[in-house]
Specification:
mainly alpha; rod-shaped
Length: 114
Amino acid sequence: TWDIKSMKASSAIPNDPANRKGISGVKVFDGEDLYAGDRKLMQALQMKDWLQQQMKEKEVMKHNTKESIHAYAEQTAAINSMRKDHEDDHNKKRKEMEKAMQEQNLLLVKDKKQ
């Protein structure tokens, strides 16, 4: 590195643990977390980002759940309507058959009486 006052290259190796000095000129010892503030800031930003992602994912899941519930309700209503139509048609045909059978039986009884 360059010494600004003397404009000479110093023999200090950058980031060498033996030459690390703090702001006050006191030697920085191993185990000290020089970047704790920066690291905590980055962790806070990362956590905020993760929380936003989770909130977005939950919203998408909630939306998809609502859509699938709505689609299921529509499908169930359509099936019930179709089933009612088939039952009504079946009952109508059964009544027609019963009426036709009754008329046929009346004709047979009439023929036997003659």
